[in-house]
Amino acid sequence: MKKARGQAMPMRVLGAMSGTSLDGVDAAVLETDGQQVLAFGEAGYRPYSAAEREVLRAALGKWTGPEVEAAAQVLQSAHMELLQTFERIDLVGFHGQTLAHDPRGRGTLQIGDGAALAQVLGVPVVWDFRSADVELGGEGAPLAPFYHFALARHIGAQGPIAFLNLGGVGNLTYVDPRRPEPTDPGALLAFDTGPANAPLNDLMSARLGQDFDKDGAVAARGEVEQGALELFLAEPFFARIPPKSLDRNDFAEMIELVSELDDPDAAATLTGMCAAGVAAGMEHCPEPPAQVYVTGGGRHNPVLMQMLEVSLDCPVTPVETVGLDGDMLEAQAFAFLAARVLQGWATSCPGTTGVSANVGGGVVSRP
Ligand SMILES: Nc1ncnc2c1ncn2[C@@H]1O[C@H](COP(=O)(O)OP(=O)(O)OP(=O)(O)O)[C@@H](O)[C@H]1O
Ligand SMILES: CC(=O)N[C@H]1[C@@H]2OC[C@@H](O2)[C@@H](O)[C@@H]1O[C@H](C)C(=O)O
């Protein structure tokens, strides 16, 4: 039976996320009743070693088999190591690691065993957040939008704003905080915008042996190749009406579009493609938001931020300008969603994943 909203208890919830960039595990405490953000707590980060990252990378795009099992072990032990360092936790929201995402085909796969984690930590763990939404016809992603709605209210936004997450993949949430509930029609529109850092990271790794283009240093020396950009934007994904989502490697072939370019021009062009995907996505919003608040690692890239400022019709700033932590926002989101799952409340709705009705995903495992 669903509880009435007034009965929800404030909890200290620990959220954990291992994102598509495969850099490490982010974990953050959020005090919440699943409706409001009450306070932000401690946060921690556990990077993957180069060897661990290779094990995870080898499993990307796979659904079963030895690579997936090896990746699951790396993922599980890294989480156990990090999450055991937190104290006084009531509940854990455990996203795991997406290995494969094909919502209209084989489904979505996040590795990680929440039941085993609950035994070790001695508290309930909410996990497998995306499957129920996909099974009911939704995209299964993005799921942070319900948290974005709570954040928009927390920062006192009076009209529509947007949150833009620039991780491996980009995702945008348009929020109208004047609606009372995130599930109200018009309160949320969310979708993946296209590849963000993943192709640029892959280029940097293949050509220069670097994990990423730190501070956009390589792209800053180059120019965007317009022909490649046009070919990229001709992909049917950009014209598709949202909600819509992507797998990390859905645009892996775009690196071919820059194969003839020198390093600076190739990096600048891939950076430009990320910004252009966001600009194309913005066209789907009902009106330009008053602000775009950027979270995720891409906000540290000044070349990318500059390109966004030029191509969007509204101001673009890192979420830190309103006192939020852009490195931990996704981990906090899964803490927030865990609190909602425990109450039996929705974590996605037609505006966020395209699912036909409001869905409360997530499995609860108790110690
Ligand atoms: N100083 C910097 N300069 C340029 N790029 C940066 C910088 N810091 C981080 N990044 C980029 O941000 C990426 C990490 O972003 P983030 O941690 O948000 O990804 P993620 O959470 O794994 O991804 P997702 O949200 O898609 O699951 C790095 O791989 C890198 O490409
Ligand atoms: C299937 C999956 O794991 N998708 C991730 C990925 O990383 C960014 C983007 O693609 C977003 O759709 C989602 O993560 C965020 C945190 C979300 O669900 O809101």
From TrEMBL:
GO terms for biological process: 1,6-anhydro-N-acetyl-beta-muramic acid catabolic process; amino sugar metabolic process; peptidoglycan turnover. Gene3D superfamilies: 3.30.420.40. ATP binds at G19, T20, S21, L22, D23, G24, V25, D26. Its EC number is 2.7.1.170. InterPro entries: Anhydro_N_Ac-Mur_kinase, ATPase_NBD. SUPFAM superfamilies: Actin-like ATPase domain (SSF53067). It catalyses: 1,6-anhydro-N-acetyl-beta-muramate + ATP + H2O = N-acetyl-D-muramate 6-phosphate + ADP + H(+). Keywords: ATP-binding, Carbohydrate metabolism, Kinase, Nucleotide-binding, Transferase. One of its GO terms (molecular function) is phosphotransferase activity, alcohol group as acceptor. The keyword Transferase applies. Pathway: Cell wall biogenesis; peptidoglycan recycling; Amino-sugar metabolism; 1,6-anhydro-N-acetylmuramate degradation. Belongs to the anhydro-N-acetylmuramic acid kinase family. HAMAP family: AnhMurNAc_kinase. Catalyzes the specific phosphorylation of 1,6-anhydro-N-acetylmuramic acid (anhMurNAc) with the simultaneous cleavage of the 1,6-anhydro ring, generating MurNAc-6-P. Is required for the utilization of anhMurNAc either imported from the medium or derived from its own cell wall murein, and thus plays a role in cell wall recycling. This is Anhydro-N-acetylmuramic acid kinase. It comes from Aliishimia ponticola. The gene is anmK.
